[in-house]
Write a structure and sequence with these properties.
Blueprint lengths: L1 H21 L1 H18 L6 H22 L23 H12 L6 H17 L5 H25 L23 H8 L1
Helix pairs in contact: 1-5, 3-4, 3-6, 4-5, 4-6
C-alpha cells in the first residue's frame, strides 16, 4: 500500500516534467542550460563547437528521416497522456538530440549528467505515448551516426577534434594489406 501511495505522488510530477520537456522550445532550452552549466562547471568548453556540429547534423538527419519514413505517431492509434503531435514520429528527435549530447561527452566528467538527461528524455517519450521504443532506439542509432559525421566533417575541414571526444569507429579505414581506389583517395585526404 505504501508503494502505491509513493507512486501516486511521483506520477503527477513525472507527467508534468515529461510534458514540460515535450515542447521543443523548453526541451532545447533545458538541454542548452544543462550543456552550458556542465561545460562551465567542469571546464569542458573546448568541445562545444564539436557538440554544436554534431547536434546540427543530428537535426538534419532526424528531419530528413522523418520525411523519408513518414511513420505515424503511436498516440494516433492509442491515446497518449498528452495531445498527439501532428508530425511524423520516426526517429524521436528529442531522443536523438539528447543522446547526441551524451555521446559527445563520453569519457568526460559531465557524461553522467547527460546520460541521465538522455535516459529521462527517452523514457518520457515512451511514457507520454508519443513514441515507441523502436523510434527512441532509432534516435539513439542516428546519434552515433551524427557524431561520426561530425568527426569526419571536422577532419575534412582541418579543425581540431577535442581530445575528450572518444569516438571509436573504422569509417574510412581499410583492413591492412587491402587497397582500393576509394581507400587510396581517402588516404590522400
Amino acid at each position: 500500500m505504501e508503494l502505491s501511495q509513493a507512486l501516486s505522488f511521483i506520477r503527477p510530477a513525472l507527467i508534468s516534467t515529461s510534458s514540460f520537456l515535450h515542447h521543443p522550445a523548453w526541451f532545447f532550452l533545458s538541454a542548452l542550460a544543462l550543456v552550458l552549466a556542465t561545460s562551465v562547471f567542469f571546464k569542458e568548453q573546448k568541445r562545444l563547437p564539436f557538440l554544436a556540429s554534431a547536434v546540427a547534423i543530428a537535426l538534419l538527419l532526424g528531419f530528413s528521416s522523418k520525411q523519408f519514413f513518414q511513420e505515424t505517431r503511436p498516440c494516433l492509434v492509442a491515446e497518449g497522456k498528452i495531445p498527439c503531435p501532428q508530425d511524423y514520429s520516426l526517429p524521436s528527435m528529442h531522443s536523438l538530440v539528447a543522446f547526441t549530447i551524451a555521446l559527445v561527452a563520453v569519457g568526460t566528467r559531465s557524461f553522467p549528467f547527460y546520460l541521465l538527461f538522455a535516459l529521462f528524455v527517452a523514457f518520457s517519450r515512451i511514457y507520454l505515448g508519443v513514441h515507441t521504443s523502436v523510434e527512441v532506439a532509432a534516435g539513439l542509432a542516428l546519434s552515433f551516426f551524427s557524431c561520426v559525421l561530425a568527426e569526419l566533417l571536422f577532419k575534412h575541414c582541418g579543425l581540431e577534434i577535442p581530445p575528450s571526444v572518444l569516438l571509436r569507429h573504422g569509417l574510412g579505414r581499410l583492413p591492412p594489406g587491402s587497397s582500393s581506389k576509394v581507400g587510396d583517395w581517402l588516404e590522400r585526404r
